[in-house]
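Bench notes, bay 3.
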Amino acid sequence: MKQPWIRFSVAGAAIATTMLLVSVSAAFAQNRTDRSSTAPAKSAAGPVPRTADGHPDLSGVWWPGQDVPVTSLRVGESGSRPEGQPRQGPKTFASFYQPWAAAKAKTLDEKDDPALRCIPGVIGPHVSLTDQGLIGQIIQTPKFVVLLTETYQSFKLVPTDGRAHRDDVAPSYRGDSVGHWEGDTLVVDTTSFNDQNWVLDHGNVSFHSDALHLIERYRRVDATHLSIDATVEDPKVLTQPWTVATQILELAPFDQIMEVACTNTETASLLESAAKQNYGRK
């Protein structure tokens, strides 16, 4: 019989891992609203602001809003939905695994999540802009759109001047991005990923290959809302592309992200130790 303390230690560590980054980002966000700031208060929804070249201005700090939707997330799901609206389509990235990948996924669990070692994900539980956390910032220039992620302090530089993907950079966790405008929608095309992180986070098994291809569409709905759609392709491990549920983020009432460092690497060791002690027990 499994020892209760071993079983509980695994569950407790997994829960701690699941909530750590969300709670940290949420706490920072909550505290920010109580601080004096030069940032203007959140404005009422109005027309989409535009840059001098006529494109929608995506600049700003974006988050889910004051009520952080922690309880609305379920294992394996990415995306939020209005209350009462039915969930649509396959709910998990893993539902599209090829047979060999599905078999491999059964051998993995929370202790194998690269996020435990402070490795960023591809889209985290939401989108690549926020990754493992809940807050991201966009800075827009005539030639670049810069995506800054608060958690792990990671970033994407997205050139929008028509250049192609670089062929002189090594594969990375965040990949190599290029962007272009389709009307009022910014399309961000990202390739050149390594295969060392997961697509999702918080123990959601979602490994991928170096053939991963991420396509995101950013559209500013109005003055205070940003719509983000994403499609994940990986012909080496998936049977077909996976479409992520649309995310709607709000313009935050502060104008800068903060540092949210990842230092809780001890959780990985705890999970590994508990798993070893549990090995072979029934």
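Next record in the batch:
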Amino acid sequence: MSKTNSPSRRSFLAASATSAVVPLVARLPLFGAGGKIPVGLELYSVRNDLKEDEPGTVRKVAAMGYQCVEFYAPYFSWTIDYAKQMRAELDELKIRCYSTHNGFDSFSEANIGKAIELNKILGAHYVVLASAGSLKTVDEWKNVADRLNTANQTLAKEGLHAGYHNHQLEWKPVEGKVPLEILASNTDKSIMLQLDVGTCVEAGADPVAWINSHPGRIRSLHLKEWSPDIGYKALFGEGVAPWKKIFAAAENRGGVEYYLIEQEGSRFPEIETAQRCLAAYRKLRGLA
């Protein structure tokens, strides 16, 4: 299915045939029923299925009980019409998209307008920089902070905010300073620091201490597991991340608004992996 043409799925065709412009519903509150924080899926977890049938895969994810999804970089190639059709699909499924993952292109002066339009259509709150790449100096990291601040000023005018997503590299000192701390100290506090738990743990950093020392900025977390034996192939709950302490810190200090399960791969097919991770999350949180 091409993102530059109308999708093949019947509901998408029906949506586009009904109206050239799909009406957007008002934003729902971030918190689910009873004040519980919604749990979603970073769609990179089902990337191969997504390539084959994007709306169909989103439907499968929603049917499992996920409450939100996070689209990643390929979404930026969508047309505006396709984004409206995807939003109609999300609304029909009663599933949200609170953030998207992006490359630097989405934050450039030439492209930020499209990023804003796509994210507003999807109902997102945050445009997240997925990675800054391999940087080797403090000045390079400060430059990333400056770019995020500049983009955030533009995004804020449209009711959106920038975000930053860490990997392992951000925990490894550069010229005696931790890159993620450089970003936190040099960016506006309205910029979300999206914590990837698995890479934090693998790097030997303390996710609980990080959350507690940056109150209100850890508004979403990637619930990625890590095990010293099988790495990121460990399903949620099978590794060494101290999940109960992480949840307590995120909800008491971090300002978390939504969680996103992410899996880089496992011994099971992608869709089954997503289902197993959600079941494990529910069990751990007493929601099963």
